[in-house]
Amino acid sequence: METGTEKWKRNAARIAAELIEDGMVAGIGSGTTVAEVVKAIAEIKPKSVFVPASKATERLAKRLGLRTDALEKYPMLDLTIDGADEVDPNFDLIKGGGGAHTREKIIAKASDRLVIVIDRTKLVRRLGERMPVPVEVLPFGWKFVNKELERMGGIPKLRMTQLGKPFITDNGNYIVDVRFKRILKPKELEGKINSTSGVIENGIFAGMTDMVLVGYEGGCKTIKRKGELLRFIERFES
Ligand code: 5RP
């Protein structure tokens, strides 16, 4: 049986797919919402090239007949479409639930525009309300990095697979998920975590998003301005 959120994701994915124009080179992130976007794009079959952020997205895109290529060949992208784990009223994000945030941040920064596609359960008033911040760490240094994250007020936990082994990213590294009581200044925390030796990249994406597409029971809400997002959050709070 299909759940509400699955349908909401598809509502937003259909609108996201329409943003792809023939001739574009587009970055494409990862996760279950992005998988719906890839399926919706494959139905339209645009003459575009896609640079996937993860091996899983690359496999799906290829299987559905989309043309994929590497960032090495196309270092400047017209647009990136990606999902998120949390989106706050300032368009700041927590990503990395799937452990692909390092490559996702690279393609986001290589793009003219970043479009985030979510269902409305991902909307939060403040980052960290529900999700920890994923931090990709060089395995050699993970214990040291954990100590540093604790000094920043975080509670770090090494991400494990169901088999009880450390989760390994597409880049061959570990992920440490860090709970913070309150993230008051996302941009500052993003920079602070990344200044620790051994940290590859963290999942806070501050000041990068241009547009948010939110799937919900009524369809999809396209949000281009920050105040609009807060009003949309408030709509579901009463
Ligand atoms: C992966 C991500 C995903 O975009 C994020 O976890 C959302 O995934 P989903 O759409 O499956 O909820 O950042 O690194």
Secondary structure layout plus pairing:
Layout: H1 4-17, E1 25-28, H2 32-44, E2 49-52, H3 55-63, E3 67-68, E4 77-82, E5 86-87, E6 93-94, H4 101-109, E7 111-119, E8 133-137, H5 142-151, E9 154-158, E10 174-180, H6 186-194, E11 199-202, E12 204-205, E13 211-216, E14 219-223, H7 226-235
The chain binds ribulose-5-phosphate.
What characteristics describe this protein?
binds ribulose-5-phosphate; alpha/beta; 238 residues; Alpha-Beta Plaits; seven-stranded mixed sheet; 26% strand; 7 helices; Rossmann fold
Question: Could you describe the 3D structure shown?
Answer:
The chain is of the alpha/beta class. The chain is built from seven helices and 14 strands. The longest helix is centred in the N-terminal third of the chain and has 14 residues. The model has no long low-confidence stretch (mean pLDDT 97). The site of ribulose-5-phosphate has 17 residues, from helix 2 and helix 4.
What is the average of the pLDDT values? Answer: 97
* CATH fold-level name of the largest domain: Rossmann fold
DSSP strand count: 14
One letter per element, helices H and strands E, the order comes to HEHEHEEEEHEEHEEHEEEEH
| Uncertain ranges | none
Biggest sheet character: 7 strands, mixed
CATH class descriptor of the largest domain: Alpha Beta
Output the strand order for the largest sheet: 3-2-1-4-7-13-14
Ligand types: ribulose-5-phosphate
Q: Tell me what portion of residues adopts beta-strand conformation.
A: 25-35%
Rg to the nearest angstrom?
Answer: 17 Å
What sort of overall outline do the alpha carbons produce when their principal axes are compared?
A: globular
Treating each run of at least 4 consecutive H or I residues as one helix, how many helices? 7
Structural class label: alpha/beta
CATH architecture of the largest domain: 3-Layer(aba) Sandwich
